[in-house]
Input
Amino acid sequence: MAREFSTIGVVGLGTMGAGIAEVLARTGLTVVAVEVDEAGIERGKGHITHSTARALAKGKLDEAAHAEVHSRISYTTELADLADADLVIEAIPESLADKAALFAELDKIVKPEAILASNTSSLSITEIGVHTGRPGKVVGLHFFNPAPVLKLTEIVRTVVTEPDVVADVVEFAKRLGKEPVVMGDRAGFIANALLFGYLNHAVSMYEQKYATREDLDAAMRFGCGYPMGPLALLDLIGLDTAYEILETMYAQSRNRLHAPSPILKQMITAGLLGRKTGRGFYTYDAPDSPTVVADAQTPAAAADGDVALREVRRVGVVGTGTMATGIVEVFARKGFDVILRARTADKAQAALGKVRKSLDRQVAKGRLAEDARDEILARVTPAVEFEELADCDLVIEAVAEDLAVKQAVFGALDEVVKPGAILATTTSSLPVIECAAATSRPADVVGLHFFNPAPIMKLVEIVETISTSADVVATAHALCQQVGKHPVHCGDRAGFIVNALLFPYLNDAVKMLEAHYADADDIDTAMKVGCGLPMGPFELLDVVGLDVSLAIQRTLYNEFREAGFAPAPLLEHLVTAGRLGRKTGKGFRDYS
Ligand SMILES: NC(=O)c1ccc[n+]([C@@H]2O[C@H](COP(=O)([O-])OP(=O)(O)OC[C@H]3O[C@@H](n4cnc5c(N)ncnc54)[C@H](O)[C@@H]3O)[C@@H](O)[C@H]2O)c1
Output
């Protein structure tokens, strides 16, 4: 017989505890909420009232249900009031000593059969459980922030948790409308173990001034479809909580990439904890508010006129692949004259055919008129000779990802293209400066990293080398905006922003799989349902191609020499075995 859970205790009503209490009350359970003092109760009540008022306003709760939710929660500062609870969920700050002390006390108060759960993000459930006389009834019940919205719950069992306790807590989580995934006791569990390496990496990029906070966040939103950028997410999580999670992960992994970036400590000491204090990486209009307001770091609107932009009317594109034809379409659609340069006339015609096919698809969907399509195509001129690019104001190279091939193209462009033209490369992993060095005009060379499919993806990474001139960067920025893209700026380092943040995380997921901590389905579910990512890491790796992913990971490893960036042996083996993902029908999964 499964246990009946009707009265649930929640200890700690901060960012997480308040959300958990709300979820419980909305499921019809009786909640006893415990805080340290009256001020804590008031703050917790405030969180809940605020959140349920929003649900009421959005029509997700009616008046009666709203009143009932509040009537189901009682508030206290006495742990003794938890005597009748069937389950207690702890959500106090991420400190092992505090949690251990709390569990020891709870053990003396609650019924012998009651279950004690911790919402810890990273601490060992085993270490918490041994402080009670019932380690078999101690589990991790890890909700995600915001608890009323995100459906994942990680249920953490230790080597001594009783199997029926796990089974009952799984059923309980389902009753709350959540998606439970069961796992063993390891720092960061599934989702945070993969998420926090990435978040910490983004913090270090910010700290090194490699890119601005806005650009780091926009890069991951527009380049990967993430619901939030890493720094905005850290503000939501709370920098103090994030710091503790990283510390715990580092203590277990000894992976330098988990050691909290120094700036986190500085910000915490200065009271910049994120949204909860009204300031973290961003500034908010009040504590606990999601509304970002301008501050000293907010970028100035538009170019302030200190550099004159170069005029760009005629755009050359070198290459005939997916990126080249996508970029041709982007510029031709916005009214630019485009020269599409291929190695042979046949290839040029075939590439033009690809552009036409893409436009035809939009005509078929009713998104483009036939005469508009014809006008766009009429703006594209196929070419074979480099000389035909002589008059271009901007030439974008999108040939094979091979440095020698790209350098040859830049050498050829340097000889024929008029002075003052901008020469750009779409490389996703090679140094832009290597392309610049193949010309006699490195100041005019810039990286314009479009994402695939170029007509759809909004992000463009503008990569500035140590030689690129300021007006070239400013012109590239204005041009991206003109063609409807969201430009972000970064230096000329392997992986730029997006790939440097994305691939180490994917590689970590492969290492987690390799270590048999969780299977591919659970890892994909955790990242999609817990973090709102559009695809799980294994789904994405199979789409990108394991060979391509391995090459990018190797490039990152070779440039930064970070032990943690070393490609996962399992990834190497799959590539060696020819399992390259969807394109070969087999990767992490089999496709029919
Ligand atoms: N913030 C997140 O995104 C997130 C997500 C999932 C899990 N968690 C985990 O949830 C837990 C709570 O994190 P948070 O972000 O909600 O922290 P928080 O700082 O927002 O809230 C903690 C609350 O606990 C109260 N508290 C402290 N000691 C207490 C005690 N002895 N008895 C009763 N109340 C006490 C504090 O007054 C505060 O209101 C941590 O273990 C954290 O790792 C956090």
Summary: Residues 78 and 427 are 61 Å apart (CA to CA). The mean pLDDT is 96.
